[in-house]
Write a structure and sequence with these properties.
By secondary structure, the chain is α+β, with helices and mostly antiparallel strands. The strands form eight sheets. The protein has a five-stranded mixed β-sheet with strand order 18-19-17-16-20, covered by helices on one side. The two termini are 14 Å apart.
Length: 817
């Protein structure tokens, strides 16, 4: 097709594009590549399917969508001037503001139209613009699906099936010449409604109440209900065709009349320009970076604290998957945060591969081996891992507590929390933050308005089925989660996060490093049995101190409290009293308080005095008085103890329960092995098997890279050449589109001649699976029952067995290969 010939179909319009333009279409609509179309005709067919068109419309910004909506109510085809008039109006009601809006629309309209053309939603020259049929059906008005423009059907559509007598009555009431031809009557009425002068004169005679009725219908919906005996204003409008019947009780304002009342505009408020993101506050960029770095350190510490508390095995998993409400509350209380925030940390650890199911019969959550590798990284690298995981994750913590499409509650770490739009929304929110000056915190409402302008259709529905505007909700969650994670500080995007988005993880970690406080090798011991860590601690010190003491408060400084239970926990882990004294003396910048030394010695003196073993269980103690005291205590009744010997008691419960029961009574027993050795309990030994982090759920096919796009365009072009090439039939009997048929001798002779002359031929080929295809090949070598040729369809050199070639035909002299 010559470039000067107007395209007659979408396929012809696509065929006239250059390779770069075709690649742009496939990049904008990657679903068209699954699988790669055989030729241009198949590409055009796929581009017009309902699912593909809906997906393309969902990715349009508001003004591009308004442009498509205007084309849906314009004549088909429509010149560019008609489209522009629907967007700007006819100028009859212009004021200064309308003039400014019209200027903006005229500037933005070519870009919006170019977007629609690039995505193959519009084709044709400027004097004959066509919206693809599927898009027109989706956006055009109907009683079942009102148009987004609020316009109703045309006069011709609304009067279809109306009797000639009724049309004559309308013409007479409207003061138009009588005609018995329905087509002429409809044309006459349409001409009246589109003539501003005559339409103005007709409306000047209308009752005031009739004009009020039109005001209610003009911007949609254009349908209204009437009674069998309508009021005089409605009857006046109906008699003159300004309201046309749809059914016995429903009337509609025809499109031509509505456009006159709207001054020619398809939309009440065209939005050619994206709303600006307004700054809510401006802060010192260094203060923002410091605040974000502090929160980043707290985020890493919180995840570590969460998983450390589950070192011995976390809570059980519900039968339907996920964490129970009670366990979520317990986790939130342990972290001293609200339940939604605890859910965020749980989901983040799970998405990062640090937390998973242990896979046992009594399934529980536990840290993974990857958690141990993560804890060995510097703080800045641990944060980068969490931040990049959050950006790419499709699991959406904000949904927890809601319901799915079937009314079932959504639980933390449970199924049905993936939302494929989440990564794109997060990246877009952060990109908008990055577009502001450093230190600028945005106003959330203007940020949401911008997101709704960029994807107006995408925000209107959700996969859950019971919520609206999911993208806006994800955007708000993104603002909150980015502050929790330290991506933003005091509402503004930090420098390290800008680097993470633009330069990658290594640059972000380098910028964060000087902002993270250096770990300390000391604490400050106090006389009230507490230790104050004035900053982050080195890992060996933090690990040992977390066993020896309980965390009482966190913040800029962490306060640890020593209790008999915490000291006993350290002794259970294999430490001796001397080890604990030496540890505190080595790591305290203040003298070890005497009460703390007494506490350690007192607990150590009683530790292991009682021995627990298996009888089912037994208690052994060299001091008979202690055993007598236990037996005399009423609280020991549930332990079902009996004396075996002066220094031994037997119990009918398991050793672990007996151990816990005696500890609740205030004793400090130690467990022992069958050989009589004290068992040492070490923390952090329970890990899941190797686990793969949950993969994000993609939103449609991924955007192809340049290499794939180039190969796809070449394959489509080659397939189109094979499908549209003109060939000479060897006999006059071959049907159009059928495989060529020749004898084996004719096939061999033709391909040998083509190989000698370097010409291309058209062949029919049946592969090993029995699938038949047509190909255009340029034979290079023919030997041993095989022909080696350049296949224009596949755009590569291939070898074909001669016995699988059904026939061969020469190409016409004017064929293009």
């Amino acid at each position: 097709m010559g470039m000067t010939t107007p395209p007659r179909t979408l396929a012809e319009a696509l065929r006239a594009r250059d390779d770069e333009s075709l690649a742009g279409l496939l990049r904008a609509r990657p679903d068209l590549l699954s699988p790669v179309p055989n030729d241009i005709t198949q590409l055009a067919t796929r581009a017009g399917t309902r699912a593909s068109v809906v997906r393309a419309l969902e990715h349009l910004d508001r003004f591009a969508l308004q442009t498509a909506e205007a084309l849906a109510v314009a004549p088909d085809p429509a010149p560019y001037e008609t489209l522009l008039a629907l967007l700007t109006g006819d100028g009859q009601d212009d004021g200064t503001a309308r003039d400014d809006a019209g200027t903006a629309i005229r500037s933005a309209a070519p870009g919006a139209l170019a977007t629609l053309r690039e995505q193959a939603l519009v084709w044709g020259e400027d004097d004959r613009l066509r919206l693809v049929r599927t898009a027109r059906e989706l956006l055009a008005p109907s009683p079942q699906h009102p148009s987004p423009t609020g316009l109703g059907p045309t006069v011709a559509e609304a009067t279809a099936g109306m009797s000639p007598g009724r049309l004559q009555e309308i013409l007479t009431a409207a003061g138009l010449p009588a005609t018995h031809d329905p087509v002429s009557a409809v044309a006459s009425l349409s001409a009246l409604f589109t003539d501003r002068t005559r339409m103005g004169e007709l409306l000047d005679t209308a009752p005031v109440e009739a004009l009020s009725v039109l005001d209610r219908l003009v911007w949609g919906p254009p349908y209204g209900e009437v009674t069998p005996n309508p009021t005089p204003p409605v009857k006046w409008l109906r008699d003159r065709g300004l309201l046309l019947p749809v059914s016995t009780r429903t009337v509609v304002l025809p499109r031509e009349a509505a456009l006159h009342l709207r001054a020619g505009r398809a939309h009440r408020v065209p939005e050619p320009l994206p709303p600006a993101v307004v700054a809510a506050a401006t802060r010192d960029p260094q203060a923002v970076d410091s605040a974000a770095a502090g929160q980043a350190f707290l985020a890493v510490s919180t995840v570590e604290e969460l998983l450390t508390s589950w070192n011995g095995g976390g809570p059980p998993i519900l039968r339907a998957g996920g964490l129970s409400v009670r366990e979520l509350k317990r986790t939130a209380a342990a972290l001293d945060v609200s339940e939604p925030i605890a859910t965020f940390w749980l989901e983040l650890a799970y998405a990062a591969g640090l937390l998973a199911s242990d896979g046992e019969a009594d399934e529980r959550y536990a840290p993974t081996p990857a958690y141990d590798d993560w804890t060995e990284l510097p703080v800045q690298d641990r944060w980068v891992h969490l931040a990049t995981t959050w950006l790419a994750a499709t699991r959406t913590a904000g949904l927890v507590g809601g319901q799915d499409a079937k009314g079932r509650a959504l639980s933390a770490l449970g199924p049905d929390l993936d939302r494929s739009a989440a990564p794109e929304v997060r990246h877009r929110v952060l990109a908008l933050l990055a577009s502001l000056d450093p230190g600028t915190a945005p106003d959330p409402e203007t940020l949401l308005a911008r997101l709704r302008w960029e994807r107006p259709l995408r925000g209107a529905s959700t996969s859950a089925g019971n919520t609206t505007d999911l993208r806006s909700r994800i955007a708000l969650w993104t603002l909150n989660e980015s502050e929790l994670l330290g991506v933003t500080g005091r509402g503004a995007l930090s420098s390290q996060s800008r680097a993470l988005l633009d330069a990658g993880p290594a640059k972000a970690a380098a910028l964060l490093t000087p902002l993270i406080p250096e770990p300390l090798d000391h604490v400050l011991l106090q006389a009230d049995l507490t230790a104050v860590a004035p900053g982050p601690l080195e890992r060996p010190l933090a690990d040992t101190l977390s066993v020896l003491a309980d965390i009482e408060s966190k913040g800029g400084a962490t306060v640890y409290r020593f209790t008999p239970g915490s000291v006993r926990r350290a002794l259970d882990a294999g430490q001796s009293a001397a080890d604990l004294h030496a540890f505190l003396a080595a790591h305290s910048r203040t003298p070890v308080p005497q009460p703390l030394s007494y506490l350690i010695d007192d607990v150590a003196r009683r530790h292991g005095h009682l021995r627990i073993g298996a009888a089912s269980a037994y208690v052994r103690c060299d001091d008979e008085a202690v055993l007598n005291e236990i037996l005399a205590d009423r609280r020991s009744a549930t332990l079902r103890l009996r004396r075996l010997a002066p220094t031994a008691l037997a119990a009918q419960i398991d050793p672990a329960s007996l151990l816990e029961g005696l500890r609740e009574m205030g004793y400090a027993p130690a467990a022992e092995s069958a050989e009589g050795d004290v068992l040492i309990t070490r923390a952090g030994t329970r890990r899941t098997p190797l686990r793969t982090p949950p993969a994000p759920v993609p939103e449609g096919p991924p955007v192809p890279d340049g290499t794939l796009l180039g190969a796809a365009v070449r394959a489509i072009r080659a397939g189109d050449t094979a499908a549209t090439v003109i060939h000479r039939e060897t006999d006059g009997t071959a049907a159009a589109g059928s495989l060529p048929r020749t004898t084996s001798a004719e096939t061999l002779a033709t391909v040998q001649a083509a190989a000698m002359t370097g010409s291309a031929v058209w062949i029919g080929y049946v592969n090993a699976d029995g699938a038949a295809s047509q190909r255009v090949i340029a034979p290079v070598r023919v030997e041993g029952g095989f022909v080696t040729a350049y296949d224009h369809t596949a755009d590569e050199v291939r070898t074909y067995p001669l016995h699988r070639i059904t026939g061969v035909a020469e190409l016409a002299d004017d064929a293009t290969t």
